[in-house]
Hints:
- The chain has six helices and three strands; from the N terminus they run H-H-E-H-H-E-E-H-H.
- By secondary structure, it is mostly helical.
- Strands 1-3-2 form a three-stranded antiparallel β-sheet.
- Helix 1 packs antiparallel against helix 2 (70-79) and helix 3 (85-92) crosses helix 4 (96-108).
- It is flat and about 60 Å long.
Amino acid sequence: MEVTATPLPCLAIADKALRLTPRDSEAIVARFLRQIAEAAATGLQRLDAMEEHRLRAAAVAGNTLRPGKLFPLLAFLQLRPVTSPRVVARQLELSISGAGKLLARAADAGLLVEISGRQAWRTYLVTDLAVAFGFARRPVGRPVEPPKVSEALDPSLSRFDAEMAELDAMLARLGVVSHVGDEQT
């Protein structure tokens, strides 16, 4: 899925010409570094799309009167974005018919796209990947605003920030420099 936040050399296929130590190795290395940077950028886009899907899924599940197995399905989709009723039925211990109806509900809510085009053996894909792989069109117009954070979470988030500040202060007293978000820790 190309999910990464740090560019790693294993994300780009090395050029065969590097084995032969050619005269123009600088151009090959530059092309290799561009591949790594592109893979990292794609990975960050995938990470953002996963987070957006998680927030949309939480909003849909929160507004559903009788969610049933919708919560386990949404958690399962984070691990396996391509699925079918048969797989969901086995994973969530449902009938194949019930799993198909659950997936159809998720597709009606805009969380999944049916990509197989077949009535009997349907296959579903998470919306952002369906757009990336060309199974669905990118929505036209302004992007849907992500759901707002509940005000009930504010005390929890501020308590977490206070705990992190205490941890940073303790680490500073011990002589350990902590840069959140940096690669130095």
